[in-house]
Design a protein that fits this description.
This protein has five helices and four strands, in the order βαβαααββα. By secondary structure, the chain is of the alpha+beta class. The protein has a single domain, classed as Glutaredoxin. A four-stranded mixed beta sheet has the order 2-1-3-4, with helices on one face.
């Protein structure tokens, strides 16, 4: 199992995801999006599972702050340039990806792991 969590320390759901895996003693790699964003290759892997429109947090502070609801823009370019626009947490297990707090899916990953 190769778990990656993309989130921010201020995001409650990201902290809950981190706690979920710690409580089950599952090793994971945490990437704080305030420090380093998502690379284009990683975004391509995520887009294979989750539509890019579902990755942008239209309710978030950063989206409102930049007034993106009133603009036309390329979603991918904006996400790569401003990682705080992502819905968090994004949790990857190899080619499997979830967005948001989804403990039922993560539990299934753990149970199916060899």
């Amino acid at each position: 199992m190769n778990i990656q969590i993309f989130g921010t320390k201020k995001c409650a759901d990201s902290r809950k995801a981190e706690r979920f895996f710690k409580e089950r003693r599952v090793q994971f790699h945490y990437r704080d999006l305030t420090e380093k964003g998502i690379a284009p290759g990683e975004l391509d892997n995520i887009k294979r599972v989750i539509p890019v429109e579902d990755l942008i947090d239209k309710e978030g502070k950063q989206y409102q702050k930049r007034n993106l609801s009133y603009m036309r823009f390329n979603i991918e370019d904006e996400l790569l340039n401003d990682a705080l626009l992502f819905k968090t947490p994004i949790v990857r297990n190899g080619k499997l990806v979830t967005v948001g707090y989804q403990p039922d899916v993560w539990e299934a990953w753990i149970k199916s792991a060899p």
